[in-house]
Write a structure and sequence with these properties.
- By secondary structure, the protein is α+β, with helices and mostly antiparallel strands.
- It contains seven helices and seven strands.
- It has a four-stranded mixed sheet. A three-stranded antiparallel sheet has the order 2-3-4.
- Strand 5 (222-229) and strand 6 form a beta hairpin.
- The protein is globular.
- It starts with 16 loop residues before the first helix and ends in an 11-residue tail after the last strand.
- The relative contact order is 0.15.
- The structure holds zinc ion.
- Residues 54, 56-57, 59, 75, 77-78, 85, 87 line the site of zinc ion (ZN).
- Zinc ion (ZN) binds next to helix 2.
Length: 257
């Protein structure tokens, strides 16, 4: 298919052509990857399904409900056998508590004066989140194409291309790393929309925000929760920032044990 077409900067049968052609094709593959089309998902029944990850074995946490109706989350490996992973179960209440802690930390909520600026900021973030993500992706695509063109020019002029190649690989890596985040981000459209509506219902007042900080609301900002231990989480937000919440077991700050 389309065998005859070659962009003008592709140089066939050049002396470095073989390596070069592979690089060229790899870049095209990245640029045309399916993940560039955004897929908007629906709200899941359990907001944290497939978003809570065990740092010790890399598996997701799954939700359990005991006969008394208490809900907890367990790492998939440790649920199979404690020999595979010994990360303990976490009560859903604790996940919510740590998330609130993280959200308050991220937005300095305890040092604010209810001046209406926080609610404005939150609404703006959700309103512009998709545009920000698109822009980030487009900038990286343009950057990658620029790298490829520069590399081709250098080859034509028989210049050293090592530095240019390094630069291109760095951009490729960045795209690769971000692709997973972008995919997860796209699936959360419905959460962002629901949270946005709840914020708008507060009619511009910061005071009500604390009352709507539940799992489903905060989920709009959360890309992933990495469980370092049942008491210590790293929360990754939609803008790629991270917040560490909870405490180290034994309290490293105070010394030992
Ligand atoms: Zn685990």
């Amino acid at each position: 298919m389309n065998q005859g077409y070659k962009p003008q900067y592709y140089i066939e049968d050049h002396h470095e052509g073989i390596v070069f052609k592979e690089d060229f094709e790899k870049v095209q593959e990245i640029l045309q990857a399916k993940s560039f089309e955004s897929k908007k998902g629906r709200i899941k029944r359990y907001p944290f399904t497939s978003r809570v990850v065990c740092s010790s074995c890399g598996k997701n946490f799954h939700r359990f409900k005991n006969h008394k109706g208490k809900v907890s989350w367990r790492c998939h490996s440790s649920q199979k056998s404690k020999l595979l992973c010994n990360t303990g179960a976490i009560d859903e209440e604790r996940i919510e508590k740590l998330l609130i802690e993280g959200f308050e930390k991220r937005y300095n909520m305890n040092q604010r004066s209810n001046d209406g600026l926080l609610i404005k900021q939150l609404i703006k973030e959700l309103d512009s989140a998709e545009g920000v993500r698109e822009r980030e992706q487009n900038l990286l695509r343009v950057e990658l194409e620029k790298c490829l063109i520069a590399e081709n020019k250098a080859i034509l002029q028989s210049l050293d291309i090592e530095a240019l190649k390094e630069r291109r690989k760095a951009v490729e890596d960045e795209i690769f790393n971000k692709t997973k985040l972008w995919e997860e981000f796209d699936k959360d459209h419905a959460f962002r929309e629901a949270s946005l509506n709840r914020l708008k219902d507060l009619n511009g007042s910061d005071k009500g925000i604390k009352n709507i900080l539940d799992i489903s609301f905060m989920r709009a900002w959360v890309i992933r929760i990495t469980v370092e231990s049942p008491f210590l989480f790293t929360i990754k937000w939609i803008d790629g920032e991270e917040t560490v919440v909870g405490r180290l077991k034994g309290g490293l700050i105070n010394g030992s044990k």
